[in-house]
Amino acid sequence: METNTLLSLFLPKEIALHFDLITAKEEVNKITLYLEEKNIVPPPLKSEEYESKGFFEEQRVQDFPIRGKEVYLNIKRRRWRHKTSKEEVKREWNSVTKGSKLTADLADFLKEYHRVTGR
Questions:
Q1: Is 99 left (phi over 0), alpha (psi -120 to 50) or beta?
Q2: pLDDT of 39
Q3: What is the pLDDT of residue 54?
Q4: Whether 17 contacts 93, CB under 8 Å
């Protein structure tokens, strides 16, 4: 099974689709996955007009635990620059809950858990 297919079983769909796993680090109670956004210009931009210009600062978010270990995603999002105007753009994505350090799926789960249990 290829790495990205395996990732799609554990990560939010949007992250598994647009990011490559660079490395993983396992500790006693924690797994950290290091991900970089693929070098694919986001639609509707035209790939011949834009070029990759590196990454934004790495973002660290928490996702669902795996096998009783905390899971952190260290995500490097790409920046693209228009070759003529030099305007910089990035892919818009909603996998991280605004104002938090949690994936949207984990935040939704915790909200529902709190609503149902009152904890």
A1: left
A2: 93
A3: 93
A4: no
Quote the CA–CA distance of 70 and 62 in Å, as a whole number.
8
- At which residue do the structure tokens 């970089």 appear? 36
Is the pTM above the cut of 0.85? no
What does the block give as tokens for 92?
């818009």
List of long-range contacts for 85-93, beta carbons under 8 Å, 24+ apart: 88/53, 89/42, 89/45, 89/50, 90/42, 90/56, 91/18, 91/37, 91/42, 92/42, 93/14, 93/18
Write down the pLDDT at residue 9. Answer: 82
Strands 30-37 and 19-26 come out as antiparallel
- Angstrom CA distances, 114 to 42, 66, 95, 110, stand at 36, 21, 20, 6
Nearest Cα residue to 43 out of 80, 12, 76, 77: 80
